[in-house]
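Q: what does this look like with zinc ion bound?
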Amino acid sequence: MPIDDAALRQAKVELAACLRWAARQGFQSGVCNHFSVAVPGRPDLMLINPEGYFWSEARVSDLVVTTHDGEILSSNGHTVETTAFCIHAPIHRVLPHAVAVLHTHMHHATAICMRKGGVVAPSYLSAMSFYQRIAYDRGFDGPALTPAEGERLAKLLGDDFILMMENHGPLVVGASLGEALLRLLYLEDTCKMQLLAEAGGRELQPIPTQLMAAIPKDVPRFKAYSKGFMAAVIRVLSREEPDFLG
Ligand SMILES: [Zn+2]
């Protein structure tokens, strides 16, 4: 199926905006780590940030369309770092519901990943939509340098939204970039709150199980909210950092 240029342009605007917004939150570390999204109508292709660039300088024209096997289809001259094909591509290939795949080493969520048996505590209202949809990788095997590692991570993630990778950091997926970015922000906020609340060794108050069970697996309100959230992010960046659209 041919690529829909208008849909691809919108995906590029959203991806560049997500990268810039994440950089504003302090989630950027060096010029590595990736945000990717399936090309609209072409789930066999992904759109991803280029090698060697900060998220804070992401521009629509710098993003790269690739196959899952590492072939670069964009003609902007950019390359894509190897680990993108060892984590992101296998997850897109194995899990079609993971339209957007975001991976960071954001500090508070990564701190939970560094704990022995670390879990995200079910104690914070804003994160109720994902508490029961978090998978944990307890088998750290060094940097992800083969597609087999990404396939292992995809199997662990399954239907869940978040994979907390021990000794590494979090990975968040969504049915859209807006959903995934909002979930990423909620996750970091939740982990930060948890670390603050646990400071001094105090016990956390869990949210009652019956309330957690009442949250449907796919919250329509979250989907609607994430749409408005993505639009707001683009609106603010269009005003304050309009070069991201270039
Ligand atoms: Zn990483």
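The chain is about 40% helix and 15% strand. The two ends are 27 Å apart (CA to CA).
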